[in-house]
Amino acid sequence: MMKKICVVGSLNMDLVVIADRFPQPGETLSGKEFHTFPGGKGGNQAVAAGRLQADVRMVGKVGDDIYGKQLILNLQKNGVKADGVFVDSGVSTGIAVIEVDGAGENQIVIVAGANGKLDSRFIDEQFDAMLEYDIFLFQLEIPLETVVYAIKKLKEYGKTIILDPAPARLLPDEIFNYLDYITPNEMEITMLTGKKIRTADDAREAGDWLRRKGVGTVILKMGKNGAYLISDQEFSLIPGFTVNAIDTTGAGDSFNAGFGVSLARGNGLWESVRFANAVGALSTTAKGAQNAMPDWEQVMSFINAEVTRR
């Protein structure tokens, strides 16, 4: 029986500008395109999991505005239970302003809005419904104290916790003891450990540092190169997939959703990381975050084609 996934985190509307390059400080450039896309790391993970046929629920907040309504509708359209999303009339919906350059790289400015109002009281109000779920995905676009509070409370009930420590920031030592899985990228693991990742030995040392702090398993995301799996039983680089990347927005969120969905299906760690690599890679082949998330059939066809090609 497939386990159920609950995502606790942010919901943003992404305002995306596409230009040939990023402007320098004080410089004005002409952009090529402008789009609005549903986003936020929490919403991205939930939609990605929904498209992968998971039983998934979103817990978060939006403002009482047109963006909030659009975000809730988009969750529902993608198979996500949105009854855990509260409309806060006293604040705007979260916004992310994203610039994408000609190489598909991005830089992002976030206004938290309703995401900043997601507090421990709200977690308490949602908690009974949350307990119906098995695997919980967290990120760091809601207040850190809320993340710590929710994770500690869920671990009292033996729930599986996956933390994507993004956007990069320092974390209190106490949180590590409650994490079954942490999924940093290179910049984030350097922020957490002080260790720059230049070699496989660097990856192992940084991962072991986190594990000594109490983390169960470290999944170090290396972009197109794949991901390192660092556990008490294994250290390996699980190769990524080569695609024509158009927009990397949401790739890390897609990875986390893929990893959680594969675990929910009962797959092992190596297989789950490989599946996550495929989901993350495919999400870069179209514009936007949630709009670019692949569905189950796309991912399986992609993986099977890679197996045949090799």
Description of the molecule:
This protein has 310 residues and is of the alpha/beta class. Helix content is 37%, strand content 23%. The protein has ten helices and 13 strands. A nine-stranded mixed sheet has the order 5-4-1-8-9-10-11-12-13, sandwiched between helices. Strand 11 and strand 12 form a beta hairpin. The longest helix has 15 residues. The two termini are 32 Å apart.
The gist of it:
The protein is built from 10 helices and 13 strands. By secondary structure, it is an alpha/beta fold. Helix 6 (186-193) crosses helix 7 and helix 8 (251-264) packs antiparallel against helix 9.
Key terms for this structure?
single chain; 310 residues; alpha/beta; nine-stranded mixed beta sheet; four-stranded mixed beta sheet; 13 strands
